[in-house]
Amino acid sequence: MTEQPIAVALLSGGLDSMVSAARARADGYRLLALSIDYNQRHQVELAAARRIAAALGAERHIILPLDLRQFGGSALTSDIDVPKDGVGPGIPVTYVPARNTIFLSLALGWAEAAGARDLFIGVNALDYSGYPDCRPEFIAGFEGLAELATKAGVDGHPFRIHAPLQHMTKADIVREAAALGVDAGMSWSCYDPAPGGLHCGLCDSCRLRMKGFEEAGLPDPTRYATRPGG
């Protein structure tokens, strides 16, 4: 009998990472979940990550502290206002410098230590905010780096970086959550949480989430403080 493979899934607590991790589970992997407490503005997402890891039956869930506020450079890690006027052109100030490179490097270290060869990340190149580390070129480049940077890779056991949502719209992702039987209401997307445990409804991430449910034609379980134009 073939031993069930292990996957390390990056789990932020957001909708995309939840669906990516659920895809790993559905594909037959034993799940190790990694969340990074980078002292982000939206700490509430870590509580969501705990809920999701438990619901998906992760064998282990590590929440690793890494204070990226020491670097700053983003509205999520320094005292810069989160934009509330809609998704615009260019790379927004909510981009955290090299975040996915840092996070995937940590996931790679755990994967090699745990004997896993598969990493899952919920990046998306269609309905996203223009982040360079969400592009297919980045995922392909990191996979090549992982082969060069690890003993496993040098020994002929390369790693695979799975980005199952890479070419999905946000509506596709909402539908995939429903198809996988995971509760989208467990996830957290808002960059700038409103009082009372509400999504602000106006940041880029809230707008994309709202648009996804609307276009998917599925009920949105998210509680918003306000809505665009409201």
What are the key terms here?
alpha/beta; 5-stranded parallel β-sheet
Most strands sheet: 5 strands, parallel
Instruction: Describe the strand arrangement of the main beta sheet, using strand numbers.
Output: 3-2-1-4-5
As a whole number of angstroms, the C-alpha radius of gyration is: 17 Å
Helix content: 25-40%
- The outline comes out as globular
What's the helix count? Answer: 7
Strand proportion: 5-15%
What would you note in describing this structure?
There is one protein chain. The chain has a 5-stranded parallel β-sheet with strand order 3-2-1-4-5, sandwiched between helices. The chain starts with 5 loop residues before the first strand and ends in a 14-residue tail after the last helix. The mean pLDDT is 92. Helix 1 crosses helix 6 (170-180). The radius of gyration is 17 Å and the shape is globular. The protein is α/β, with parallel strands linked by helices and 230 residues long. Helix 2 (44-55) links the parallel strand 2 and strand 3. The chain is built from 7 helices and 5 strands; from the N terminus they run βαβαβαβααβαα. It has helices spanning 15-26, 44-55, 99-114, 136-149, 151-154, 170-180, 204-216, and strands spanning 6-10, 30-37, 60-65, 118-120, 160-162.
